[in-house]
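Chain A, query sequence.
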Amino acid sequence: MKSKYSISFLYLYVFITGASVMALELAASRFLAPYYGTSMIVWANIIGLILLSLSLGYWVGGRWADRRPDGRLLMTISLFAGVFTSLLPLWGELIFPNLSAGILNTPILIIICSFFAILIVFAPPVFLLAMVSPFAIRLVSAEDGQIGKVAGNLFAFSTLGSLVGTFGTAFGTIPFLGTQETILLWSAALILISAWGLRHTNGRWLGFLLLLPLLLYLLTQGAVQSANKDPIIWSKNTLYQYVKVTKNAEGTTALIYNEGGGVQSLRRPGDALSKGDYYDDYLLLPYMVKQPKEVLVLGSAGGTIPRLMAKYVKPSFPDLHITGVEIDPDVIALDERFFGLQPGDATLINQDARVFISNTDKRYDMVVVDAYSQQIYIPFHLSTVEFFQTIRQHLNETGLVALNVNATTPDSKLLVSMTKTIKKAFPYSYVVRARGQYNYIVLGSIHPLDSADLQQIDPKNPLADIRKEWPAQLEPLTNEQVASGQLLTDNRAPTEMLTDSMIFGIARKE
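Chain A, predicted structure.
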C-alpha cells in the first residue's frame, strides 16, 4: 500500500515522536519525585520500564506494520499516545498519593505497588510511541527503493528529536515552565502532528482532542496544596529536584525536597532550639576548636545551620566567619526570604560541595557536611574516604569535620560504614547521639576532642541544655567498633543501598 504521506512529513513526525519519548522519560523522574524521590532505585525502575516498553513497542509495531501498513493507523497510534500523555498529570495524582506515605513510613508492599503504578501510568504512551519507527519505515518501504537510506534518515531524525527532547526538557521546559507543563506541551505536539496526518479523515472529534492538553492544564492547576499536612507557601521544579517550602500553624517553616522523606532546613519561630532538631548539636562544635574563625557548611540548603550559628555561637566568637555551599541556586534564594538568614550571617556559594572543597585554597577550623540530595540519602561522592581526606587537607591543625547520619540503630550498617570511612581519613573519630529520632553526629579530627571544652558555654546560654545531652567524655572509636562496616570509596560507595536496606529492615519489623 502506497503511503500518502511525504518523506518530509515523516521526518518531522519521527522527530516529534522521538523528542516526546525522551521528554516523557525526564519528566517522569520529576513527576514521580514528590511521591517516591529520585534515588537510584527509582531511576532504575523508570529507565528499565521505559526500555521494556520501547522493546515491546518496536516488536508489536513491526508486526502491525506488516499486517496493515496504513498511515492512518500510525497516526491514530501516536494520537492515542498524545492523549494518554496529556492525562498523565491527572492520572498520576489519582494513583501516586495513595501509594506513598514518605519513604520513612512506606511499607515494602506499598513501595512495590508504587512501581506497578509507574508501569501503569508511563508504560502505555512509551509503548505506543515505540511503534512509530518500524511503522514509518514500513510505509516508506512500500514506495521507495532506497529503503536503507530512508530508514537511516528516519532514525537520524528520530534521534535528533530525542536530543532536543532531552536538552530542551532538562534545561528549558522543566526549570522554566514546570513538569506538568512539559508533559502537556509534548502531548499537545503529538496530538497536533497526528491530527494533521488525519486531517483528511471524517473525525470531527480531532478538534476537541487539540484542546484536551489545555483543558487538563487548567483542571490540574493548584491541585497540590499541602505537603505532610502543612500548607505549601512556595514550590518549584528546579534543575536538581522538586522543592517546596511549607509553614505549619505554629509558624515553623520547612524546606522539603521531592517526596518529603526528610526535612532539609527548618526555621522555628524566633529561631528557637528544639529537642527534635539535630541541627542544634552542630552549635556545640565551635567550642571544641581552639579560637575558631572559619566554619564551612557543605550543603547549607535553606541556611538553618549558618543562621543558628550566627545567632547562638557568633556572640561568643565575634571573628567567626561562616561559609555555606549549596548546589541549587533556587534554594539559596530561599534562605533570606523564608528562613531568616541575614546578609551578614554567612557567605553563600553556589557549587557542588565536593567540587568546592577540592578547589578551594582556604583552610577551615570546622567543616559540617549536611548534604542530602535525595531526601534522606547522603550523596555517594560526599561519603567516601577520598572526600574526607580532601577535607582533612583543608582543615587547620585543631580542626574537625562533622556530619549527620540518619540511622535507626547505633549498629546500623550505614552508620558503622560512615564511621569506618571517617576513621580511615582521620586519626580520631567519634559518634554522638544527636537530637531527633534517627540522628547521629559523626566527628573526625586530627587531634583528640575533649567534651570538657564545652564547659566554657555559659549556663544561661540556651546551648547549655544541649551540652547536658552530650557524653561527659568522648571516647575515640576503635577498630573493633567499626569492623563490621564497609569502607566507602569513590569506586564503591553504596550509600543508597545501605540506606534502603535499613528502611526495609524497619518495614519488615512493622
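The chain is about 50% helix and 15% strand. The CA atoms of residues 45 and 115 lie 7 Å apart.
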